[in-house]
Amino acid sequence: MAESPAQDLLCSRIRRAEQALMAHHEAVLRGYGLTMTQYSVLLLLSSEGGNSGAQLARACGVTQQTMASVLTGLQKKGLIDRTPSPMHAKVLIAALTDEGQRLLTLAYREVVVLERALSDAFTDAEHAALIDLLERATAVLVQQTPQAQPVSP
């Protein structure tokens, strides 16, 4: 069954790297009372401005129901405000509060330390090659992912 040892399989290596990355970020963010999804929302709102829950759910790779809970939690903490969209009254647009920006800035200062350490571990050419390889791997993973098929009655 196994053509190569598990440690030589690319998917295993990618998964290990992802687990290490998530463990680092979760440990840092826990100190700020944030989950990875909450941090991602704050980061998106900081860089892109106001977004709907549906837009944020797609960007974070979670369901709209999960995002609704995330946004409610962030709003209760005073990190975001939600106001009706001028285009669609039933759609709420989330925006970062000053407190949300302050907390994001503090958390980002710690999260970015890992980014710098990773960048420093590679030469400029290796860094560029790794980015290219990861992009290619991601494209293959996306292309190979089966699409959900409707269930026939």
From TrEMBL:
<dbReference type="InterPro" id="IPR000835">
    <property type="entry name" value="HTH_MarR-typ"/>
</dbReference>
<keyword id="KW-0804">Transcription</keyword>
<dbReference type="InterPro" id="IPR036388">
    <property type="entry name" value="WH-like_DNA-bd_sf"/>
</dbReference>
<dbReference type="Pfam" id="PF12802">
    <property type="entry name" value="MarR_2"/>
</dbReference>
<dbReference type="InterPro" id="IPR036390">
    <property type="entry name" value="WH_DNA-bd_sf"/>
</dbReference>
<keyword id="KW-0238">DNA-binding</keyword>
<feature type="domain" description="HTH marR-type">
    <location>
        <begin position="7"/>
        <end position="139"/>
    </location>
</feature>
<dbReference type="GO" id="GO:0003700">
    <property type="term" value="F:DNA-binding transcription factor activity"/>
</dbReference>
<keyword id="KW-0805">Transcription regulation</keyword>
<dbReference type="GO" id="GO:0003677">
    <property type="term" value="F:DNA binding"/>
</dbReference>
<protein>
    <submittedName>
        <fullName>DNA-binding transcriptional regulator, MarR family</fullName>
    </submittedName>
</protein>
